[in-house]
């Protein structure tokens, strides 16, 4: 249960220049409602394979501190030919609870619409797309599944400059069509950012894939039980809009080492709607 405004006391003072302090009110800027675009791209070390993922997303205010979530993922895989795919569209919701003066918890989840089918797409059309994010949100580009995705997140502001974030997100892959295997993925990440309105930091993300030693759908991630990646990033968070860009460096036997075999760019931008 989140604390009441009376228990929390008065909100922090406004930032200089008339802007909002990043932790003013109940929801910090990074957790507010938004409409935006997220892209990730990578090129293999041999230059023969590359992938691009593009996701349109919305976090629309529904009730106090509660948001409806929509993601429409698209992808391009470029090797001997160029293939375009529509990933698994997801619908869900999340709630942001303020549990301390500078600490927030996020709880939510979503369900995929199984719009990517293994019958109509070859493995070469979706594998490079999911690799562009070091397999984060792999369920968006994994065919013939109904994904059920739970999300737990935390954000803490330490002093006037430092922000820490944490994510823990298990995903259940329910098989459809020719797919016969249930799979479980547990994605998790920590971030440290210095600076509020304009800042930079580092993100460390992991994909635990404990059941992927037995996958009935052909995919490059099969038998790869853990994928680690580091992303140094720069971020701008303003009242009306936000932007973030980072360099994704996988430390994985298949994708890594960084800058040698696989590397990618991650870019997110959008506008706030609440």
From TrEMBL:
Region (Disordered), start-end ranges: 1-21
Protein name: Secreted protein
Species: Sorangium atrum
